[in-house]
C-alpha cells in the first residue's frame, strides 16, 4: 500500500519549473519564471498535452509546482499540493500512510478496494498508477508536479474523468553530482535523502540513484498496544541508467519502497455503546487492539522510456512499465481493544503497461497518435470480525485488460487562432471473482483462523467489456503573445465493474420465480461506467511586463451514471454481517470557477535585489445531483451532496526574497482555506468536516548555486484538528442523515455492538529544520 516515492521517466525533455524567481513559493503555473526554463516568449513550459508547450498557450486548467518550490516550502508528500490547487482534494485514506483519496472538481473515488477505479489519474513519469494503494508519493528529488483539472479523456484516457496529477521526477544532469539533504523536527521527524549521478565515458551514458530514509514518531499513542499512532517508518531507493545520443534517448529506472509504519488507528467520536468506553481527549490517540496481520507494505517498479527522432518532423516514443505492491494491514474500525468490528486486510496489485506515441511537428500543425495497453490485477481480501466469534470473509480478485488508441491534433490557423481536436477509443474488460463467506467461532482460514464455515453468501465469477469514445476539442484566441482566451469541450469515461463486497444472497428475485439466477446476481453485483462531459472557457494573461500573471477558468460538467459504492450492516441467516451495494445512482451537474494569479508587488525596494510577491488561488464549485435513486428506489437528489468537495477553496502566499551574504534568504507564509464538506453523500453528524484554514510558513537561506541551504518550516501552525476520512456504521435516517435512536435515546449500531463512528485526522502542527549540501 505504499509507494512512498518512485521514479520513472518523463515522456519529454523535463524542464526545471520554478515558481517566482528566487522566491520559492507554492504558486500558480502561469506565474513561474526562471532562467533556462522558459520558452521563447518567457512563459513556462509544461507537458500537459504530452508535448512541450508554454503554459500560457495550453487550453487546459493546469497548476504546476516546481520541485524547488516544494522543497523550499517544506512540502512532505503529494497531498500537500491540494492546499494551493483550486477545487482539488488529495488525502491519505484511513488506516495507512500510503493509500490516496483524490477528488478534482467533485469527481473521484474514496473506496480503495479492488473493483473500484479512481476518478483521478495519477501518473508517475507518464506511467499510470492503476490503484490508490502506494499512491501517496513522498516529495523528494522531484522535478515538478502538474495538476490537470477536468476530464483528460484523450491523452491520459483511463479513468481521468475528474483530472490527472502528474508527478515528474528529475532527469540526470551532465555533471557528476552528490546531494545530501536532512530534516529533523517535531515528533522526532528524521529524514535523510542522498542523491547522486555521474556521466560515464563521453557522457552518452549516465548513472544515478537516490536513497531515502523517512521516519517520524507518532502524533499520538495506541493505548492498548503501546505503539505510536500516526508514525512513519519508510525506506526508499531508486536506480537510473540514462542514454542520450543525437537522435535517441533511453531511460531505465527501477525503484523499491518498504513502509513499516504502524497501522493508523482512528479516533472514536462516540462512547462505546456496549462497554461505555469514553471518548479519548487526544484525537490522535486510539485503543484498537487488532495486531494481525502485522502491517507491512512493499512496492516496486521498473520502467523503460525510449525516444527516437528519425526526422525533424517525427518523434517516436515508447513507455514500458511494470509495477507491483503488496500491503498487509490491520484496520480496527471500532478502535477498541475487544473484537467488535476488526478487519485484517491484504491488498495485492500488479500491472504491466505499454504505450506507444508518434509525435508530429510540422510548423503550424502538431499532432500525437498513440496506443495504450494495460494488463492489471487487483486482489483484496479481508475479514470482518464481529462479536461472538462471527467473521465475514470478503475476497475480491479483479483482472483488467485495457486497450486504447488515441490522437490529438492542433493547427495554428494564424498567429492569433488555433484549433485542437482529439479523441480516444477505449476497450476495457473487467473479470472479477467475488467470494463472501461467514465463519463462526473464529476468523477465516485465509487469515489463519479456525472458524467453522456457516454460510457462503457469494461465490461469483463474471466478466464484462466496456467500450467508449471520448472526444476533445478546443479553440484558442491570442490577441497578443501575453493573452490567451480559450473554449474547450472534453469527455471522460470511468469503467464499470463488480462490487467485491456484494452478497449474492441479497440479490433481488426480479422475476419472482423463487430462484436467484446467475443473471440476477450478475446484475446485482455489477455496475456500469460513468461519464463526464465538460465545457470550459478560460483566460490566461501576463500583464505589466509580467509583474502580474493570472489564469481564470469557468466550467460546466454533466455527470452521468454516477457510481456510488457503499456498504451497510445487515442480518443474513440470523447473523450480523454487511453488504456492499454499488449503484449507478444518478445524474449530476457540476459548475464552477477557478482563479490563480501572482503579483510582483515590489522589487529592489528595501535593498538591491529583493522582491515581494503575492500569489493566490480561488476555487468555487457548485455540484448538485439531478437524480439520485437510493436503495428504496426513491429519488433523493435534494438530500445528497458530493463527498470530499468543499464549495470554496482558497489560498494566499506572501513571499519575500532578499540577498544576504553570498546567498539568498526566502521567507514565505501561506494561508489555505477550505469550506465545509461531507465524507459521504448522506450527511454524517460529527464526521463531516466544517470549514477550516491551515497556516504554513518557511524561512530558507540558500548559497549561490544552491550548494548549501538551511531552512526552518512550520506547517499547520495553529494546530488545527481537521477530519480527512472516517467510518460510520450507525443507523441513520436515510433522508436527513440524523442518527436513529432507541426509545431510551441510545444510538443504534448497524455493525458490531459498540457502534462505529470513527475519524482520521490530518497532521497536527509540525516544525522542522532542513539542511542540504551539494557537491
Overall description:
This protein has 775 residues and is an all-beta fold. The chain is built from two helices and 41 strands. The chain has a 22-stranded antiparallel barrel. A hairpin with a 5-residue loop joins strand 19 and strand 20. The two termini are 35 Å apart. 54% of the residues are buried. The N terminus is likely disordered.
What brief labels describe this structure?
775 residues, five-stranded mixed β-sheet, 2% helix, 55% strand
Secondary-structure map:
Layout: E1 45-46, E2 53-54, E3 61-66, H1 67-72, E4 88-92, E5 100-104, E6 107-109, E7 120-124, E8 127-129, E9 142-149, E10 163-169, E11 177-185, E12 189-200, E13 205-216, E14 220-221, E15 228-229, E16 232-245, E17 248-259, E18 267-268, E19 296-308, E20 314-332, E21 342-362, E22 365-386, E23 390-412, E24 417-440, E25 452-480, E26 483-494, E27 497-498, H2 518-525, E28 526-527, E29 530-543, E30 548-564, E31 567-572, E32 575-580, E33 583-603, E34 611-628, E35 648-660, E36 663-674, E37 692-703, E38 708-715, E39 723-729, E40 756-761, E41 766-774
Parallel strand pairs: 7-10
Antiparallel strand pairs: 1-2, 3-9, 4-5, 5-6, 7-8, 9-10, 11-12, 11-41, 12-13, 13-16, 14-15, 16-17, 17-19, 18-40, 19-20, 20-21, 21-22, 22-23, 23-24, 24-25, 25-26, 26-29, 27-28, 29-30, 30-33, 31-32, 33-34, 34-35, 35-36, 36-37, 37-38, 38-41, 39-40
Amino acid at each position: 500500500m505504499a509507494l512512498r516515492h518512485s521514479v520513472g521517466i518523463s515522456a519529454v525533455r523535463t524542464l526545471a519549473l520554478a515558481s517566482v524567481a528566487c522566491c520559492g513559493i507554492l504558486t500558480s503555473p502561469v506565474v513561474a519564471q526562471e532562467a533556462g526554463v522558459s520558452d521563447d516568449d518567457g512563459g513556462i513550459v509544461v507537458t500537459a498535452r504530452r508535448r512541450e508547450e508554454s503554459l500560457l498557450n495550453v487550453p487546459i486548467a493546469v497548476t504546476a509546482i516546481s520541485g524547488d518550490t516544494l522543497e523550499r516550502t517544506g512540502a512532505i508528500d503529494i497531498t500537500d499540493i491540494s492546499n494551493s490547487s483550486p477545487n482539488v482534494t488529495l488525502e491519505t485514506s484511513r488506516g495507512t500512510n500510503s493509500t490516496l483519496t483524490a477528488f478534482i472538481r467533485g469527481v473521484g473515488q474514496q473506496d480503495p478496494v479492488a473493483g473500484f477505479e479512481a476518478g483521478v489519474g495519477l501518473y508517475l513519469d507518464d506511467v499510470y498508477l492503476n490503484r490508490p494503494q502506494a499512491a501517496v508519493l513522498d516529495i523528494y528529488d522531484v522535478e515538478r508536479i502538474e495538476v490537470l483539472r477536468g476530464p483528460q479523456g484523450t491523452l491520459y484516457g483511463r479513468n481521468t474523468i475528474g483530472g490527472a496529477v502528474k508527478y515528474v521526477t528529475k532527469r540526470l544532469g551532465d555533471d557528476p553530482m552528490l546531494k545530501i539533504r536532512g530534516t529533523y523536527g517535531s515528533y522526532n521527524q528524521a529524514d535523510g535523502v542522498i542523491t547522486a549521478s555521474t556521466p560515464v565515458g563521453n557522457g552518452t551514458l549516465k548513472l544515478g540513484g537516490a536513497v531515502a530514509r523517512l521516519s517520524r514518531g507518532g502524533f499520538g499513542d495506541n493505548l492498548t498496544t503501546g505503539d505510536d499512532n500516526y508514525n512513519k517508518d519508510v525506506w526508499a531507493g531508486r536506480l537510473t541508467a540514462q542514454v542520450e545520443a543525437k537522435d535517441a534517448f533511453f531511460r531505465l529506472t527501477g525503484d523499491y519502497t518498504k513502509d513499516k509504519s504502524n497501522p493508523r488507528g482512528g479516533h472514536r467520536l462516540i462512547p462505546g455503546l456496549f462497554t461505555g468506553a469514553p471518548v479519548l481527549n487526544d484525537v490522535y490517540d486510539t485503543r484498537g487492539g487488532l495486531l494481525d496481520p502485522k502491517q507491512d507494505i512493499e512496492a516496486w517498479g521498473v520502467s523503460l522510456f525510449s525516444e527516437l527522432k528519425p526526422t525533424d518532423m517525427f518523434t517516436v516514443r515508447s513507455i514500458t512499465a511494470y509495477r507491483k505492491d503488496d500491503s498487509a494491514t490491520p484496520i480496527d474500525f471500532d478502535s477498541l481493544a475487544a473484537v467488535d468490528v476488526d478487519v485484517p486486510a491484504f491488498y495485492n496489485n500488479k500491472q504491466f503497461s505499454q504505450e506507444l506515441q508518434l509525435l508530429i511537428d510540422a510548423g503550424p500543425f502538431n499532432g500525437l497518435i498513440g496506443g495504450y495497453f494495460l494488463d492489471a490485477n487487483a486482489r483484496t481480501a479481508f475479514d470482518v470480525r464481529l462479536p461472538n466469534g462471527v467473521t465475514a470473509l470478503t475476497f475480491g480478485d479483479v483482472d483488467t485488460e485495457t486497450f486504447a488508441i488515441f490522437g490529438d491534433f492542433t493547427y495554428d490557423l494564424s498567429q492569433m487562432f488555433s484549433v485542437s481536436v482529439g479523441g480516444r477509443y477505449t476497450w476495457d474488460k473487467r473479470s472479477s471473482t467475488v467470494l463472501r463467506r461467514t465463519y463462526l467461532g473464529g476468523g477465516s482460514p485465509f487469515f489463519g483462523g479456525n472458524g467453522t464455515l456457516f454460510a457462503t453468501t457469494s461465490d461469483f465469477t463474471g466478466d464484462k467489456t466496456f467500450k467508449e469514445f471520448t472526444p476533445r476539442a478546443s479553440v484558442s484566441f491570442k490577441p497578443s503573445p501575453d493573452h490567451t482566451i480559450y473554449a474547450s469541450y472534453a469527455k471522460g469515461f470511468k469503467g464499470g465493474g463488480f462490487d467485491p463486497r456484494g452478497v449474492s444472497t441479497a440479490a433481488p428475485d426480479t422475476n419472482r420465480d423463487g430462484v436467484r439466477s446467475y443473471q440476477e446476481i450478475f446484475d446485482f453485483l455489477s455496475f456500469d461506467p460513468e461519464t463526464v462531459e465538460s465545457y470550459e472557457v478560460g483566460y490566461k494573461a501576463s500583464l505589466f511586463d509580467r509583474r502580474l500573471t493570472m489564469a481564470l477558468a469557468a466550467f460546466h460538467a454533466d455527470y452521468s451514471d454516477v457510481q456510488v459504492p457503499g456498504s451497510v450492516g445487515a442480518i443474513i441467516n440470523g447473523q450480523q454481517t454487511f453488504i456492499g451495494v454499488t449503484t449507478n445512482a444518478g445524474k449530476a451537474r457540476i459548475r464552477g470557477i477557478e482563479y490563480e494569479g501572482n503579483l510582483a508587488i515590489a522589487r529592489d525596494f528595501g535593498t538591491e535585489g529583493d522582491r515581494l510577491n503575492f500569489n493566490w488561488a480561488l476555487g468555487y464549485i457548485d455540484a448538485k445531483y439531478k437524480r439520485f435513486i437510493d436503495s428504496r428506489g426513491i429519488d433523493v437528489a435534494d438530500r445528497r451532496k458530493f463527498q470530499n468537495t468543499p464549495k470554496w477553496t482558497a489560498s494566499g502566499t506572501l513571499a519575500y526574497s532578499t540577498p544576504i551574504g553570498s546567498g539568498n534568504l526566502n521567507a514565505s507564509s501561506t494561508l489555505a482555506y477550505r469550506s465545509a464538506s461531507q465524507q459521504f453523500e448522506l450527511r454524517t453528524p460529527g464526521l463531516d468536516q466544517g470549514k477550516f484554514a491551515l497556516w504554513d510558513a518557511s524561512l530558507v537561506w540558500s548559497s549561490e548555486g544552491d550548494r548549501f541551504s538551511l531552512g526552518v518550516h512550520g506547517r499547520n501552525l495553529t494546530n488545527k484538528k481537521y477530519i480527512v476520512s472516517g467510518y460510520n456504521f450507525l443507523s441513520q435516517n436515510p433522508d436527513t442523515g440524523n442518527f436513529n435512536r432507541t426509545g431510551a435515546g441510545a444510538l443504534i449500531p448497524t455493525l458490531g455492538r459498540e457502534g462505529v463512528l470513527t475519524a482520521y485526522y490530518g497532521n497536527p502542527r509540525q516544525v522542522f529544520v532542513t539542511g542540504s549540501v551539494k557537491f
